[in-house]
Amino acid sequence: MPRTADVRPPRSSTPVEGFALLGAVPGRTPEEVVADPRPWVPALVPGGVHESLIAAGLLAHPYRDRHEDDARWVEEQDWWFRTTLAGPGDLAADERLRLVFAGLDTVVELWLDGRPLAAHQNMFTPLVLDVTDALADGADHALLLRFAPPLAGLTVPPAVADLGQRLGAVFAQLGGEGDAAEDPGEGGGLPAMLPLATRRRKATFSWGWDFGPRLPSVGIWQRVTLVRERRAVVRDHHVRTLALTGGTAEVELLVEVDAVVAAPGRTAHVTLTAPSGRVLTAALPVEDGEARGRLVVEDAELWWTHDLGTPALHDVRVELREGDDVLDVRTDRVGLRTVALDRADDPEGGRLFRFVLNGVPLFARGACWIPADMMVGSVTAERYRALVGLARDANMTMLRIWGGGVYEHDAFYAATDELGVLVWHDFMFACTDYPSDDPELQREVAAEAEHQVRRLRNRASLALWSGNNEVHLIHGFAYQGYGPGGWGEHFFHEILPAAVERFDGSTPYWPGSPWGEDSAEGFMAVNGVLDGDRHAWEVWHGFDFGAGGGPYDSVGEARHYRRYANDRGKFVSEFGLHASPALATLERWVDQASLAVHSDAFDAHNKDHPKDKGDALLEIVTGLPTSMAEYVDFTMVSQAEGLKFGVEHYRRRQPHCSGTLVWQLNDVWPGFSWSVVDHDTVPKAGYYALRRAFAPVLASFRVDAAAGTAELWVTSSGTAPVRTTAVVTLAGFDGTEHLRVEVPVDVAAGASEVVWGWSGGPEGLSADRYLWVDAADGAFGPGRAFLAEIKDLPLGGGRLEHVVEVAGPGTLAVTLTSTGFSYLVRVTAPDHPAARFSDNYLDLRDGESVTVLVTGLPADAGVGAVAAGRYVGTGPTLTP
Q1: Is a pLDDT exceeding 70 seen at residue 42?
Q2: Which one of 454, 539, 746, 868 is separated from 407 by 20 to 30 angstroms, measured CA to CA?
């Protein structure tokens, strides 16, 4: 056993707190600022300037109504932070002190007791400073930081300026969209500041995007600690699964040591404790600052996505010892699993793009993740857990961290590990060329890649590193190719893959999203259908991104979600449609007097361009709304039906298509966007449509109403075959049953097959009817297909009744009963955005009842906390 004679702890970490901030015109000296008589404002750390000013009552919340513009001045000032550091006073000769800033946003200089200490200009790397000598006296010391405007002094790289000119010409030729004509500085197209921002390692979405405002965060966005360490420390460690053979896992252990004082005979003792309590240990000699070894784990408890098994996590304890003296201790949680990328030849043509977890091929079902707030430093662990939990509850098995945001806080990855959700991780580059021939920027990117790969390589949920978001796609549009040059090529094809290989060695790397390499598709292979992943923006944006289709009779038809049926991509890593947040969310953030369709405040919360882009689609699907309530309902219908249509199409193509990641899961602010969960964490109708379409076993119809044909497909994304009886009904909204048939189903695991077909002619598939399927034994959830646009369906007849009962503290049970067919039946809790629903936005046939359990309400919530309703629409009415 390690001895206890030395009572000093191996390591202590003390949070640095008590920060205050002051704004000043750029260029003032530390002496001038310290002498400034104005009061300093308490600073939120971790956090930023905006949220600190809001908390102090000095800034109207920029998300509310039109106050976004009132915050523009914040990015134009210097922001000074100060606090006091207390030295320990009893530092031993073999100890050191390090001041660790986990994240500084972004261009900052530091002074200690009036003397220059350091400078830093990368939001994505930590700043670690040895302050042993400065703080060893045990006295108080003044720490001062100055954050400068992040883009001050920069110039646009010539190659990036050339890209902008070329893109303008390309989009002008496309015509019909209106996007290029809008002011990109207000969020349409590419942000006006983006070319300049390519020289600074800061989140690109800061400068406004098509889903969020221009609100560049500034400040100390991650924790600050004063770390006291002994003569040697564990610098880093890596626990990775090399191979799985049957139930046996071969695990490689790597421990890296940073020695303050050199000494022989040190060992790294690694303990691996399984969820069952089984313990395995290894003692590894440290040589040249490194210890390596292997463990063979019999009957290993593997980490799986939540749908395939248990996301089992092992506790890891690493002790650095010198004899029996413990010098340092690190703890972690890891999963034993292997992840590979299968790019084998596809019998359909081209190559597969398929994730393989522990030897099991996957159909990845999930969404793209953007930062959970514009003010990235103030997102709580609880908020991360809630959002990742919503993804898990929607049957999602993968989240893609988008390259225009941030490398997330540890709480995000802890949630994905624990909840069994894989992570596709972009590096932080998005939507423009980058001056990759700049030596200084190369050094910053290399340091950033090393830090983030080391930081995240032990995460069980990490499935892929991807070089960027849409840089290749946009460069290809502009230049019709991807030759060597200072546009990012050196980053995405050299520096980043080298970092993944050197510091990880097991997680796959992919040059960008999208990316593909089939020469038959020319430069558009990057977003083609024969290889790699693709972004399916034919729908919503209305022109061809590589899937083909058209010409179309109208702009609305060009943007219609029916275009998903043309897409034969191998893995669809972005696709989506706009939908409004819940009406109650809008009412919390937009003044009632301003809340009207296409009012100034309404359009200010929609950063896509043109502001009425979705209207052309609504005109076809639902008709145009005449009130805010209708706008919320109609856009939710369009999104829900569109995502249902797209996911069902892509899943029927399994395994030729092996993944769908919806754009986007969440929101950065309370605006109109492609999210399926709004900023207040209220799920939209599209969320529940995805939850049903992402179920491990899916029954879906493929219908050609004009030809009078229909097929029923059953798709399995699990590891067991599906053997059941499907009950198929063709019924009228008036209650008439025109067809009922029982269909035997026997579908292999991981397969998608037609199990029933019908060719009764167009008259049999008229707008007053619908197709329905469910499983006699509940092997899959109900599936439904309408046979015309929503506005042409007779949804106004019948009635919906509901009864609310208290089921426990903070829990209500709402029983809904339909007379006639009720579409998009929903329960709402307008005053309680944290409420969660066991199901919602569902269809009920004549005489059907369902009980929705509402949780997350205040403990004393009464029956009046919820309401119920359904979609009526503008179509014809039939009386059942």
Answers
A1: yes
A2: 539
| pLDDT over threshold 60, residue 861 | yes
- The partner residues of 836 in beta bridges, in order of sequence, read 855
Name the residue range of residue 818's domain: 799-871
Q: What is the mean pLDDT of residues 474-486?
A: 91
The answer to whether position 514 is within a domain reads: no
Distance CA 39, CA 399 (A): 44
Q: Which residue has the tokens 């050196």?
A: 490
Which one, of 523, 498, 366, lies nearest residue 445 by Cα? 498
CA distance 648 to 686: 14
Q: How far is CA 304 from the centre of its chain?
A: 20
Please give the Cα distance from 404 to 33 (Å, whole number). Answer: 34
Residues 16 and 146 grouped into a single domain: yes
Dist. CA 821–CA 760, nearest whole Å: 23
The half-sphere exposure of 289 on its side-chain side, counting CA atoms within 13 A, is 10
Which range has the top average pLDDT, 8-12, 84-88, 678-682? 678-682
Domain with residue 766: its CATH number is: 2.60.40.10
Average pLDDT of the chain is 94
Closest CA to 361 of 389, 340, 382, 330: 340
Phi and psi at 421, nearest 5°, equal -120, 120
For residue 774, give both structure tokens. 């469910």
* pLDDT category of residue 513 using cuts at 50, 70 and 90: very high
Instruction: Tell me the C-alpha distance between 392 and 366, whole Å.
Output: 9
Residues of the chain with pLDDT > 90, as a percent, come to 89
Mark residue 153 as left, alpha or beta (left: phi above 0; alpha: psi -120 to 50; beta: remaining): left
How would residue 169 be classed by pLDDT, with cut points 50, 70 and 90? confident
HSE of 308, CA atoms in CB hemisphere, 13 A: 29
Q: Residue 450 belongs to what H/E stretch? A: helix 439-456
Q: Choose among 371, 333, 422, 368: nearest CA to 123.
A: 371
Region of residue 189 (left: phi > 0; alpha: psi -120 to 50; beta: else) = left
Which pairs count as long-range contacts for 834-838, CB under 8 Å and 24+ apart, including other chains? 834/386, 834/681, 835/865, 835/866, 836/393, 837/683
**Token pair 């109650």 in the structure block, residue:** 584
Tokens coding 542: 């209305």
Confidence at residue 877, expressed as pLDDT on a 0 to 100 scale: 60
Cα(239)–Cα(255) distance, integer angstroms: 9
The neighbour count for residue 504, using CB atoms within 10 Å, is 19
Closest CA to 765 of 806, 705, 723, 719: 705
The residue out of 193, 225, 257 marking a domain boundary is 225
- Looking at the DSSP bridge assignments, the partners of residue 293 are 253
Taking the CB of residue 180, how many other CB atoms lie within 10 A of it?
Answer: 18
Dist. CA 227–CA 12, nearest whole Å: 6
Q: Alpha-carbon distance 612 to 616, whole Å?
A: 8
Give pLDDT, residue 188: 40
- Total of domains in the chain: 4
Q: Which whole number is the average pLDDT over 694-722?
A: 95
Any bridge partners for residue 248, and if so which?
245
Examine residue 23 and state whether it is found in any structural domain, yes or no: yes
Q: What is the pLDDT of residue 879?
A: 47
81: in domain: yes
Instruction: Return d(Cα 347, Cα 653) in angstroms, integer.
Output: 12
pLDDT (tens digit per residue) in 310-362: 999 999 999 999 998 999 999 999 999 999 999 999 999 999 999 999 999 99
Q: Residue 499: pLDDT above 80? A: yes
Beta-sheet strand order (sheet of 697-704): 697-704, 709-716, 752-758
Asked, for residue 21, whether it belongs to a domain, the answer is yes
Q: Determine phi and psi for 30, rounding to 5 degrees.
A: -55, -40
Q: CA nearest 200: which of 403, 425, 378, 434?
A: 434
